[in-house]
Amino acid sequence: MPTDGEQASFELGIKFGALFHQFIGTPVSESSAKSLETAIEESIENQPHCESVAVTIDREVLAGDVGPYGYTGLAGRHLNVDVVVSKDGRRAEGSMQMVDGYPLMTLDAVE
Amino acid sequence: MPTDGEQASFELGIKFGALFHQFIGTPVSESSAKSLETAIEESIENQPHCESVAVTIDREVLAGDVGPYGYTGLAGRHLNVDVVVSKDGRRAEGSMQMVDGYPLMTLDAVE
Amino acid sequence: MPTDGEQASFELGIKFGALFHQFIGTPVSESSAKSLETAIEESIENQPHCESVAVTIDREVLAGDVGPYGYTGLAGRHLNVDVVVSKDGRRAEGSMQMVDGYPLMTLDAVE
Amino acid sequence: MPTDGEQASFELGIKFGALFHQFIGTPVSESSAKSLETAIEESIENQPHCESVAVTIDREVLAGDVGPYGYTGLAGRHLNVDVVVSKDGRRAEGSMQMVDGYPLMTLDAVE
After folding, report:
1. What number is the ipTM of this complex?
2. Which domain does C80 fall in, by range?
3. Cys-Cys crosslink for B92: which of B12, C6, D9, D40, Cβ 3.0 to 4.6 Å?
4. For the domain that residue A63 is a member of, what is the CATH number?
5. What is the pTM of this model?
6. Chain A residues with CB inside 8 Å of C67's CB?
7. How many distinct structural domains can be found in chain A?
């Protein structure tokens, strides 16, 4: 049987996969970034055992991607994400950041 | 060559296909519905030639779908959508509503 | 009332918006590109009035995006798409190609 | 520091969240289900540490959902999924099935 720490880690992974693949490609601009951050956070926080989700869309990176039409599609390179889940007394924390051009999702701590 | 009215209608169709397939499946609850409505509207309004997007998530239908975990995935049956695009002097208006269990997208007027 | 040509153009736009926003971000590599092309085509061809969908994932562009992990997320720059819809005797044809870093969707002909 | 078993469980969770939120809503019919199953499997298998993905779209449930237009959007209730990941010598196995109307993702074993 998986341990409680493994169960919490599995739940955390689900949140990262869901967040990324639900919202990647969403049209986003500097003026709409704030409402998208909020919607992503509140959406993923609905999922079971999810304690908190913090999403920041990097406005500088975003500004560099916005071309002649004034917007771009949300990409991994725009996102900084922290998620905490809590299940059966164990708390798992993870984050997402760009490494080698990939949006690397990491399990930072299980308490 | 396509007419200006056909071009505006094509642009309008893009917005409906994009809106539906980007956001369907997003975890949503009665408490997060408002932020999701706003994010969908502001996101799609970024697209070229898009004048306005109005999204209402039907709270009654949503409440009926929310099960033991307190949320569900956004589905066509939750959505009422109106979109207006304007291109080369022509304005196309469309809407989305449920017909026969399908989220039917309709072109309502081209002016 | 919208004309038949406008209705066909609207339907065509829906297919492009749906195709792009459903599949963007899908993990793809040179070895999985073929099955993804087929699935996208067969999926969108299910939609009402859709006569044909032809999708090519540019293997050269894809190869340039595949990093140390051997895959990337499907992006507009990988895609060449042709779609034909037919409704009430009118046929609308469109295509998608990269222009100024955007996946530009164009209405090519209404017959 | 998280254990190797927790790391493998986290990676497995990512695959389930990604698979579900990338493909939910995809237009699907009895004739296109096979190509969609294959594309989902080959797509998610691209992700780091992913050993195998097996996807079955339940044709009976699908047939019940296909209405007058001959297709529906892919939903959790259509899917049976098994995924295995392997990382740093630990193997995590999970599955997805419907429980209480939710597509429940479960961590079945960590070896």
Report:
1. 0.96
2. 4-110
3. B12
4. 3.30.1300.20
5. 0.97
6. 100-102
7. 1
